Amino acid sequence: MLSGAKLRKRQRAGARVGTRGWESMNAHWWQTAVIYQIYPRSFQDGDGDGVGDLRGIMRRLPHLVELGVDALWLSPIFRSPMADFGYDVADYTAIDPLFGTLDDFDALAHAAHALGLKIILDLVPNHTSDQHPWFIESRASRDNPKRDWYIWRDGAADGGPPNNWQSDFGGSAWQRDDATGQYYYHAFLSAQPDLNWRKADVRAAIYDAMRFWMRRGVDGFRVDVIWHLIKDAEFRDNPPNPDFRPDRPSHEAVLPLYTTDRPEVHDIIKEMRAVTDEFPERLLIGEIYLPIERLMAYYGRDLDGLHLPFNFALISAPWNARGLATLIGEYEKALPPGGWPNWVLGNHDRPRITSRAGADQAGVAAMLLLTLRGTPTIYYGDEIGMEQVPIAREQVRDPLERNVPGIGVGRDGCRTPMQWEEAPNAGFSISDPWLPLDDAHPMRNVAVQREDKASIYNLYRRLIALRRAHRALNSGTYRSVAADGDLLLFIREYEHERMLVALNLGDEPAQVSFPGHPLTGRLVLSTFGDRTGEPLDGDVALRGNEGAIFALSGDSHVP
Ligand code: NOJ
Which residues does the annotation mark as catalytic? Predict the structure, then answer.
C-alpha cells in the first residue's frame, strides 16, 4: 500500500519542475513541496509516558508517506524546562529527554531521508529559557561577561518597569531580578528572557547551533517570532492602540512599534540566510504575524532574506468568497519579483481550521490550501479534520491560557493528541495523554478514514497527489476568475495545462456561467470524492460546500 523510497524519489524528481525559464531550471525542492507540521508532544508517544516523542514520530513516518507530503517541520525538541512546551530552550544542541536522545534524532532524520522526506527544525532564537546557562550567568552579576547577552535595564525613576513594553503572555514585559536589582526584557513568559541580538557573540552562538543541525542533515528551519528579534535601541515607549478592545489580551493596549518589525531585523535575517546558504538547498522559513505589505520586506531586498516568510493571512481571514479572493489577490500582487508564495491554514497557536470554517467547509479549505500558488503547510491532524477540543479549566496546560484566562486565546484545544485508530487513546499512547483526546476519535481517525473513499483524509491524499502530478498546480500561474456570491473561482496555468478551481463557500448549490464563453473540460476532483471524469460543458455547478478542480480543454476561453 505504501510507496517505497524508490517510488518517492521518482515522484519527487518528477515534481521538481517549475513554470517559467528561471523556475524550471532552478526550482528548489521547497517550492513544489508540501510541508507538514508536527507538534511532537501530540503526534505519537513511543515510550508510554503520555507525551509524544521522536521514536513515536519515527513509527508514524509511513503516515506522512501515505499522505504524500514532502517535508516535516517539528515544533521544538531541544532541551527545555517546558514552561512554554519547548519554546523555552535551555540547550540549542541537545534533545530534551522527554523526546529522546540525539541518537533518536539521527535515526529519525536518517529514516525520513530514506523515505524521501525533508526535515525542518524549529529554531527559537529570540529568547531562551531562564534555565539556559547563558541566562544563569547573565543574571549572576552586572559585570558578568554574559550580562549583555540579554536585555537588562534599570527601573524607571519610581522603581517600576523601564518603559511600557508589554509581554504577549500578559503584564509588563520587564521582570525585576533581585540578584542585581535590574529588569530584564521578555516578550513572552518571564521564564523566556529575550536575547540581545545586537550582540555579535549572541548571533554567532545561534548561527553555530544552526550549523550543528545542518551538519546533522537538517534541511531547514522555521524561525520562531523572527520579527521580534531586534527591539528599539532607545527603548522608547510603545504608542497606545486606539482600537484596543477590553476583551482582547492586555498587550494589545499598545502598538508594538518599538518592540517588533524594527528595520535592523533585516540585517540579522540576511546573516541568518547566509549561514543557511553555507549548506546546499537548505530552507529558511520565518514566523511573522504582520500585514501583507510589511511581510514582504522579509524576503530581503535582493531575495536574500527568508525563503518563505510564513503567510498567515488565511488564518485570520473571514471565510467568504469575496474576502478570500481579495486577500489572495493582494498577497499575489504584493510579492516581490521572484518571491515564492506560501500558505498556512493552521498551526499550534491558532484554533483549528475545521472549527473556524466549520466541518462542512473542511474539504473546501483543504482544496484551497493545496491549489493556491506556493508552498502549503499542513498542520498535523487537519488532514483528518481534527477539531478544536474543549479544554476544562483543570485540564489547561498552556501558559498563555493560565496567564490570560477565559478570553479564548488558549492553545491547548488545537494541540490535542493525533487520532490514529479506534483504540485506547486513539493509538496515540498506552497511557493517559497529556491533553484530552477529542471525544470524536473513535470515528474521526486515520484508520477509519483511510477506508472511506469520501473522507477528508482521502481528499487530502488526492489533492497532494494531484498537486504533485500537475505542473499547473505545483508551479503554474494564478489568475482570479470570479468571486461571486459564495463561489470562488481561479485558474492555475502552466504552458498548455489549465486547471480551474471552483469552491463553494456556502451550503447551498451554486452555479456560474460565462455567457458567450462556455467552458469545456472535465472534472478531476470533487471534495466529495465523486464526479471524477464528469464532463464540463458550459456552466460550473457545485453542490453546497463542494469544491472541484476541472482540467480545462484547450479551446476554453475564460474571460
Ligand atoms: C511563537 C510560537 O509559535 C508559540 O507557540 C510560542 O509560545 C511563542 N512563539 C514564544 O516562543
Answer: 224, 278
Indicate the pTM of the whole model: 0.95
Judged by phi (left if over 0) then psi (alpha if -120 to 50, else beta), residue 303 lies in left
Ligand 1 pocket test, candidate residues 225, 227, 403, most atoms within 8 A of CB: 225
Atom of ligand 1 nearest to the CA of 400: 7
User: Could you give the angle at the alpha carbon of 186 between the alpha carbons of 181 and 187, nearest 5°?
Assistant: 155
What is the average pLDDT across 69-94? 98
**Ligand 1 contact, 289 CB (< 6 A):** no
What is the rounded average pLDDT of the residues 82-93?
Answer: 98
Q: Mutate which of 89, 120, 121, 124 to test ligand 1's pocket (most atoms within 8 Å of Cβ)?
A: 124
Which one of 1.10.220.10, 2.30.30.100, 3.40.640.10, 3.90.400.10 gives the CATH number of domain 133-185?
3.90.400.10
What does the pLDDT look like over 260-273, one tens digit per residue?
999 999 999 999 99
Residue 166 · residue 155 · CB < 8 Å: no
The CA distance from 198 to 433, in Å, is 41
Determine if ligand 1 sits within 6 Å of the CB of residue 188.
yes
- Fold for 28-127+200-467, please state it: TIM Barrel (3.20.20)
Q: Is 39 in the pocket of ligand 1 (CB under 6 A)?
A: no
- Ligand 1 pocket, residue 73 CB under 6 Å: no
What's the 69 CA to ligand 1 centre distance in angstroms?
A: 24
Answer yes or no: is the C-beta of 88 below 6 A from any ligand 1 atom. no
Provide the residue ranges of all domains of the chain, joining segments of one domain with +: 28-127+200-467, 133-185, 478-552
Establish whether residue 87 lines the binding site of ligand 1, counting it when its CB lies within 6 angstroms of any ligand atom.
yes
How large is the C-alpha radius of gyration of the chain? 24
CATH of the domain spanning 478-552: 2.60.40.1180
* Pair 445, 384: CB distance under 8 Å: yes
Q: Taking a C-beta distance cutoff of 8 angstroms, is the pair 391, 412 a contact?
A: yes
pLDDT in tens, 406-415: 999 999 999 9
- Cα–Cα nearest to 447, from 418, 422, 417, 416: 422
Determine which residue's CA is closest to atom 4 belonging to ligand 1: 349
b/e sequence 279-300, b meaning 16+ C-beta within 10 Å: beebbbbbbbbeeeeebbbbbb
